[in-house]
Structures are given as C-alpha cells and as structure tokens.
Amino acid sequence: MALNLLHSNDRKGTYPNSWYAATATPPDPYPTLDSEIRADVCIIGGGYTGLSAALHMAEAGMDVVLLDAHRVGFGASGRNGGQLGSGQRLDQEGLEGLVGAPEAQTLWQLGEEAKALVKSLISKHKIDCHLRPGVAWTGSNKRDVAHLHDYAHHLQDHYGYGDVELLTEEECQQMCPSPAYKGGMVDHGAGHLHPLNLALGLARAAAGAGARLHENSEVLEIQEGAELRVKTANGEVRADQLFLACNGYLGGLNRQVAAKVMPINNFVVATEPLGEEASRVLRRDVAVADSKFVVNYFRLSHDKRLLFGGGESYGYRFPADIEAVVRKPMTEVFPHLPDVKIDYAWGGTLGITMKRMPIWRALHQTCCRPLAIRVMALAPRSMQAS
Ligand SMILES: Cc1cc2nc3c(=O)[nH]c(=O)nc-3n(C[C@H](O)[C@H](O)[C@H](O)COP(=O)(O)OP(=O)(O)OC[C@H]3O[C@@H](n4cnc5c(N)ncnc54)[C@H](O)[C@@H]3O)c2cc1C
Fold first, then answer.
1. Ligand 1 atom nearest residue 73's Cα
2. What's the pLDDT tens digit per position in 313-338?
3. According to the CATH classification, is domain 128-189+263-352 in 3.40.50.150?
C-alpha cells in the first residue's frame, strides 16, 4: 500500500493513544458502508469540517451521507490543542495587507461568526467538551510583547473587539511563571475545550438531524458521471454532490486540491496529573500560545495535567519518539519540568496552504453539479465550524 497519512501512523479504525481518547466516551462505531446507497450529498471526512457540513445540510433537509476511513474525530479534529481562537490564521494586519481593509473586516466577522457558532453548537447540542474562556498570547521578548499590545489596540480601534486584556511582564509571570515569556495579552472571547468530545458531539448532532454516518469506510475512488459514484472497499454512494473534507489526510484522493495543500505534522503530550505543582505552570484557567514560528501551545486539563503542543515534522511518518520531540520545547518553557512523567504523546496531521488561509474550491467536472471542497485554515486561531 502506497504510503499515505491515513495509515502511516495509526491503527485502522482506532483513535491515537492520546489523553483525549483516554478521556472521551466514543459511541459504538457507526456502521461500515457495505452496500450501494443513494444520497443528495456525499461528504468524505468525519472531522469538524465534514461533521458540521453534515449537520447543517441535514438540518436544511438534504439527504446526507458521511464517510470516514477510520472514526469520526480520527484526524486533526480529535487530536489538536483544543484552542478556539478569534479571527483567522493570519492576523488582521496581515489580512489587510493581503486583501485590503474591507475584505479583512469581512474575514474578521467570518471568524467571529465561526467562533460564536462553535459555542452555540456546544450549548444547543449539550456537548460536554469542557469549554472554558480565555486564550493568552505571550511574547518572548520586548518587541513581540509590544507587537501583541499594538495588535490588541488595533483590534479595539478597527474591529471594535475589546475582549482583550494586556499583560505586563509581571502580570504574565503571575499567570504563567515561565522565564520564556515577557508579557502578552489574554483574549477572553477565545476559549479552550476537549476537541475529541466536540467532534463526537457534532457527530451525534449530525446523526440526530438525519445524516447517515459511516466509519471504517475509506473512499478509494470517486467516479464522475451522470451522478457521482463514491467507492469504498465494500460499498458505493451515488450522489449529486460531493463535499471533500479530508484536510491534511486528503492524500491523492483529489490531485487538484492536493496540489494546494501541504500536510504537516504537529505533536502534543499530556503529563501526569501535576496536583499542587500545576500552579508552577498556569495560575489562570486559560490556554496559552506563544509567538514562536513553530508555536508552543499549552493549557491544563481538567485533571491538572499539562497538555503541551509543539514541534513539527513533514512527510508521512511521525518521529519514533514524540515524547522527546515535545519535551524539548516544553522544558525550554518550563525548565523545572525536565523529568516530569509524560503519560500520553501523540501526533496529528494538518494541511497548510501557501497563504495560511482556508481554500474553498468548487471543483468542476464535465457534467452535473459542481463538486464542493473546503480545506480548513489551520491552528491555532479558530476551529471554524462554519
Ligand atoms: C496537533 C494539532 C494541534 C492543533 N491545534 C489546534 C488548535 O488548538 N486550535 C485550532 O483551531 N486548530 C488546531 N489544529 C488544526 C485543527 O485541528 C484542524 O484545522 C481541524 O481539525 C481540521 O478539521 P477537518 O475536519 O478539516 O479535518 P480532520 O479533522 O483532519 O478530518 C479529516 C478526516 O478525513 C478522513 N479521510 C481522509 N481521507 C479519507 C478517505 N479517502 N476516505 C474517508 N475518509 C477520509 C480522515 O479519516 C479524517 O477523519 C491542530 C491540528 C493538529 C494536528
């Protein structure tokens, strides 16, 4: 089997050995597709993108089928840092330069709507994913801190976004006693959550709205024609429209899109519960992301473990020792934790685009209605369930 990210680092149909999988309660697997069925829309990919699309399309009365090669939330959606951020992956100043101020306003608004939608889906569908407010951005030097403070003012002045608290070096130390950080800001409109429980909750909601979910149903081929024929090993979906939501796990399923997306791998560890020692890591119940090029992001779990994400790799195989990869940046941020016991270490793959912005693409085929495709912009700004 040609190397592909769907099978390079994980056992088939199984969640990675993450703290999220250890603390989530996934339902029994949704059935494997084992016959020929018809639908208005066939969605490939059971992460936030596919599940949210399935939920909203089913609520709109469409006959929806979703196929995932493994389990819902198997991909980046069930393994990430759990940070629900504001705006887009590119900050507003970057967007103003890229698309101009009016479009930057629109994209800011879209990010805020997406953030609000995630929160409303969680409350409407009673999704128990420990959503808590607050993401802090920290700078490692005076210049980074000054930039973060200027950015907070920029959001206030140009986007009317005042949900931000500035942190001096002392206030930053009170929040997170790490020698690595010299100040920053806290975005109280952002938040953090249990990402796999969010995905499982979206799946329950989509199934409840009438979407047919099939797990362990890897799509091997898509045939165009009078109607689309989406083929798996044991079944087939005939549909009018297709929604590809495979993100970094797309592989060769669609070359047009694969040409625009580069998969990268990122890694997270969960320490043993820290008990009282947790206050030497964080004294406020916020998540943190720093201003390094390869972002370090962390927070405390509800059982007082440090969930620390950092390190990056390219290509199909994860490094043999993920723990060692993440322990390095973790010890740079928390020098007092060189020997802390790590109970879980896992990796995940996300797709990045040249501009670090989402790509939406209607993929035209010779006949019938356009295909639809979306690739998510990536972490850690906003999970964008819109
Ligand atoms: C380690 C890590 C940390 C991150 N931290 C954050 C964060 O803190 N905040 C944030 O906003 N974002 C974060 N992200 C990014 C975020 O997780 C992703 O942007 C988001 O989850 C992508 O969702 P998705 O539904 O598009 O794709 P995924 O969740 O990746 O889902 C794609 C699905 O497609 C399925 N699939 C692929 N090919 C096939 C096929 N041929 N047949 C059937 N199914 C197929 C896969 O099995 C998979 O389940 C992080 C990502 C990683 C990896």
1. 49
2. 998 899 999 999 999 999 999 999 99
3. no
